[in-house]
């Protein structure tokens, strides 16, 4: 068995094998090569770090991190977020996952990546913790029904898992030049960089769900549409605003209600998201949240308090 860092020219012939192995490991439909190149190669922050294992020219495991800039007190920190983690079922419990983690981390240090962030499922979480990652519980899920009386008769639906609708690619347009981005940051900000180039790549090049865009002169927001049982839900992935002090959440809710006719609207965020106070004051309810989060600081000289990290749903919405 060979362990190596994927080279996008040298190892192009292995892409199909990787997609097949990933589909089998995740028990999901096989992705396309176009999707692979979009996700792992075309990220505006740079090509993904992909540690792979192969046996007789067949991929049997992969740990991949997508490059992602963070900003801490107006200073850029080079980071990466987990994009792919799998070991083919026939090769599990043989130390493959551990070797892939080590290889990916070594490569990340070589190219000066300082921070890893991951939102693993419960099966993978233990493996990361065993490799020195730290678990942290800062993610929250805030939910608000459009009609509380209707929801009382739909409690079983409310307990169901959110399932996003199929993509509406043909109905979406890329972000216009005038579209708002959050350039005015609060003091002591710690967040992921979400610039216009990244957002266009992420949501308007190869979207994997149905999205809705709402905006006016003071904000720009994108939500993911799906169902929780028979209840239509909009997950607000991000809101860019001109001025936090004057920004009103109710304006966003009104726009989404007009455009999507939702039954539920939600804000998956972290404890330090600047919108949290406004969300709470608008009648949202904090509900149980099952998102795992762990991290590893590769540059030990950095003084980073991960509990201060501001997240919105765009950061842990899988794709």
Distance between the termini: 29 Å
Integer tally of domains: 2
CATH architecture assignment name of the largest domain: 3-Layer(aba) Sandwich
For the report, how would you describe the main beta sheet? 8 strands, mixed
What gross morphology would you assign? globular
Write down the Rg.
Answer: 20 Å
Total helical segments: 10
The number of strands is 15
Uncertain parts: none
Helix content: 25-40%
Order of H and E elements: EHHEEEHEHEEHHEEHEEEHEHEEH
**Structural class, please?**
alpha+beta
Element layout with pairings:
Blueprint: E1 2-5, H1 15-26, H2 33-41, E2 49-54, E3 59-72, E4 75-87, H3 96-110, E5 115-118, H4 122-129, E6 134-135, E7 139-145, H5 148-152, H6 155-158, E8 163-164, E9 190-192, H7 196-204, E10 210-215, E11 219-228, E12 231-241, H8 249-260, E13 264-270, H9 276-281, E14 285-287, E15 294-297, H10 313-316
Parallel strand pairs: 4-5, 12-13
Antiparallel strand pairs: 1-2, 2-3, 3-4, 3-9, 5-15, 6-15, 7-13, 7-14, 8-11, 10-11, 11-12
Describe the structure.
It is a single chain. This protein is α+β, with helices and mostly antiparallel strands. The chain has 2 domains: 2-113, Gcn5-related N-acetyltransferase (GNAT) (Aminopeptidase); 139-290, Aminopeptidase. Helix content is 26%, strand content 30%. The chain has helices at 15-26, 33-41, 96-110, 122-129, 148-152, 155-158, 196-204, 249-260, 276-281, 313-316, and strands at residues 2-5, 49-54, 59-72, 75-87, 115-118, 134-135, 139-145, 163-164, 190-192, 210-215, 219-228, 231-241, 264-270, 285-287, 294-297. Strands 1, 2, 3, 4, 5, 6, 9 and 15 form an 8-stranded mixed beta sheet that branches. Strands 7, 8, 10, 11, 12, 13 and 14 form a 7-stranded mixed beta sheet that branches. Strand 11 and strand 12 (231-241) form a beta hairpin.
